[in-house]
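Crash report, auto-generated. Payload:
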Amino acid sequence: MCNPITVHGVSKFYKNVMGERRFKALDGLSLEVKKGEVFGLLGPNGSGKTTLIRLLLGLIFPTSGRISVLGKDPRYVGYKKKIGYLPEHPYFYDFLNPFELLDFYGSLFGMDPRTKKKRIFFLLEKLGLKDSYKTQIRNFSKGMLQRMGLAASLINDPELLFLDEPTLGLDPIGTLEIQDFLRELNKEGKTIFLSSHLLAQVQGSCHRVAVIYKGRLIKTGSLDELLTVDDETDIVVRGAGRDRRERIKELLRQGGMEVVGISERKASLKDLFIKIINEENKG
Amino acid sequence: MRNIFLIAGITYKEALRNKLLNILLLFAILAIASTRFFTIFAPSEELKIIQDTSLGIIRFIGMLITVFITGALLPREIERRTITTILSKPVSRAQFLFGKFCGALYAIFINLIIMGVLLNIIIYLKGRMFNVEIVKALVLMGMEFVVLCAITLCVSTIASEIFNIIFGILIFITGHLTNYLQHLADRFDSIAMKGLLSFLYAILPNFENFNVQNAVVLGTEVSLRYVGKAMTYGAVYTAVMLMLGYLFFAERQV
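Recovered output after restart:
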């Protein structure tokens, strides 16, 4: 069985009106995404992440190299029945409401009316849009547009998902909900290819990542491989006040270990924010 | 086919919301309706003036509606990136382009029918008659707009909205002057000039083929054979423009 995504030696140069190569977006990039994994593409703004996704979708074409998505060339339209795509800034026909838009997209996949309607209401409920299903999309906030985009990418229950900055515009709670939802989708066997410049979100979601910079692949591997610091171990201790820390350091030194640092454990600002909001909701 | 109809439907719904087009239609309706009150001419002349003026208004406003709808179709989809959400689905570029073309034509024809029905009502109120030649004139006008839509759409696969609109208007004007190219060619001795002008005459659209306004006004019958020939010319020209547009769009990076 072939990998859902194979990219081999792909370069992309953008040309000016005279046909001269002016801007190099990707340079000899190669990577593979395995079935059933969540693969993260990391890189700063302008590194080529969106360009790669658009190449994988056949929206633009490589200058050189080969691409295969679900075993097909991206120019082939048939494989798109099995994929879903969330663009970086979702744009829709804003005179439609969520139901009409998802109905339109569902029809493009040839879904039968009953299945389509069931799927639409499932997605609207799951993504917190049920109360707004008759509101015109032009009145949506950024966060709602992002959720709408995710719903649109899932209408056909795809086996391969392309998500370009999936949590852009969402608050921390919304981000957590989407991350949980993506984990659920992955447990169902879906392969997810997500691109982001938000490192913490990628760390919480992905099995493997690739880091690209200025169009070149810099590093790729599992999160464990990439993030493990050789020969250093985190130990969390309860009940060790300031007066006991020196004793702990001494014991470890006697055991032949070097103590790199000891400090009070702090929760992240994100965890604090979520805790406060949850407590308010319960109250 | 299903995807073509779906895209045509959404294109039509979007066109209905275009305020400029609604204003143009309203202007046309008011202008045609006002011909009802032409009473300064002799009664025998009034009907001719009404038909001539109204057909002129319909042709002009119909042309503007055609270029404004069609010129914006692809550039706006690309600019707003709504095209990426469609082409990432199992929709081929051919289906997308043809769907946009059909949706635009649907909107153009609705406007043409509204203006045409109003004209026929005015003529009936004025002359207590139904002029079947007006219907032939309107059908040919419809084909003229189909050709203009196809040309504008072809250009829009590679150009901006403003360029498409200006180009569409210029091609409409040129298309009504194409016959002069042949006369001009006869007046030059230079083979190169003759060749160039003959070449331009052959490739530029000849919109005068669809213009039977004078015949209608003078009460001359327009034969069904002529209508058939003009429609065939229009269909062939449209097909060539759509194929050319598809060749450009197939390689367009969106």
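Post-recovery validation: Residues 242-282 of chain A form one domain.
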